[in-house]
What does this fold into?
Amino acid sequence: MTDTAARLLSLLSLLQTPRLRPGSELAERLGVSGRTVRRDIDRLREIGYPVEASAGGRGGYRLTAGAAVPPLLLDDDEAVAIAVGLATVAGQAVSGVDEAAVRAAAKLAQLLPSRLRRRVSTLAAGTLPFALAPAASVSSDALVTIAAACANQERMRFRYRGRDEIETARHVEPVRLVAGGRRWYLLAFDQGRDDWRTFRVDRMIDLRATGARAQRRTPPAAEVEEFLRARMLGMAPTFRADVTLHASHEVIATLLGDHLGEGTLTADGDSCRWHSHPDTVEWLATRLLSLDTDFRVHGPPELAAHLDAMAARITRSRR
It folds into this structure.
């Protein structure tokens, strides 16, 4: 690589930050004159990099958004972070984005030096994707439409398919789009019901922004995510687990801690019997697996079925 090419790459790396970099700082970092910096800036512009220049005491240069995506320069940690992030996105429930993430990850893997490929592969080998519920696919267009309506405080209309498969017309003031459990949810104030509601995005049909201004409202809780979690838990069926845990009462009591709640834990020789407080099968299954001991489920059958489905999913992923 020539000195000029190497210098241009170094200059491009310096410009890929949000703040303006004065010409004097760039010249000092590159070990060249200010005139050379200005000439190199012109070279970058000629090959398509949109470099913004600002005069004055606080002026300088920086790379701005252009009509196309130019090649990026990444340090080692940034490259690994993007590779791992792409692998995570590929497993999410946004139609079209997962395939694009796989293609982008393949391109990045082809360019990574061997030392970074080893870091990425080590992370991938030691990480098992784990979902408490099957993914419900949503379109990226729907997410963008909802996010824009939230940001612009604009009312929305759509048809909503409930759990009973009945569709109803909705007119809402959207507040927040939340991702959780491989599903997407909208928190909004429902005009027709004069109350706050949560909507699963994959059940929203023909959604559109109306152009009408939404009223500025205070969410029903200080933390929107906490409200959404409580609302979803309230809608989900709950069960009491009846499980024999093959570990001592003392060990399990310590591991359960405050999670015992209204449940009971009784010793039974070298094992113990756990009757849990009411909760969803997803939470109960997660809590059982976190105890890191063998167990036998006596009930309910919904919990046993959920654990069987999880075991089958994990077995498939290992193949």
